[in-house]
Amino acid sequence: xxxxxxxxxxxxxxxxxxxxxxxxxxxxxxxxxxxVVVLPPAALPATERRRxxxxxxxxxxxxxxxAAASGLAPDTLETVFAxxxxxxxxxxxxxxxxSTPGGAISPTQFHNSVHNAAAGYWGIAAGSxxxxxxxxxxxxxxxxxxxxxxxxxxSRQVPVLFCAYDAPLTPPLDSQRFTDAAFAVALVLVPGxxxxxxxxxxxxxxxASSVGVLAPLMAGNPAARALPLLQALALxxxxxxxxxxxxxxxVVLGVEPC
Length: 258
Description:
Number of strands: 8
Strand order of the largest sheet: 3-2-4-5-1-6-8-7
CATH superfamily: Thiolase/Chalcone synthase
């Protein structure tokens, strides 16, 4: 399957946005991890903005950057949101309330606990009624979400916004599912060729692609498995990228600058 990449969004430690991070990803300047600053999404009405969680803000920040870079109207994009943890902080708070005598569950927390919360908020912010898929695939959420998004572009010939995101969990969940730092990546994928052509194929096996000094970041967040692709895009070079899957097999990405 082949499609074009029309826009990129990024947010992670020491990676405050796609344009600001390209030199780091290309190896031109050193990577210096720092706190991830996520602002409330300005496109949401004030009432909805106050309800957003860290995970939702993370996903919407990367998505908004990618959509703006693509030049396409946000309400024209189908969406695929992929996350390993979902909104683990909210789920943890609900579990704490359920385990506390007399504990009450906040309606807002319940509203944000579903796995498609980020997609719902995006639909509100963009004024979109386009088709949307939200999925989770443990450590394989990024590659499997990307396969889903590219398949939608190819089969229906429509532009698709794909976003993979994950944020750290709170105790005690973090002891069972460690996530080191917040990270989100978004791509606007379009039919045909754009500035870069992306191919996606399934394989029986593939060697994992290296990301050099960014390896700790990739190991500490499932969404950061996007880093080999982001490095190839930042370098502007053709690349073949292997993403082995947990249960065997692999997703292989091909990058071809136009």
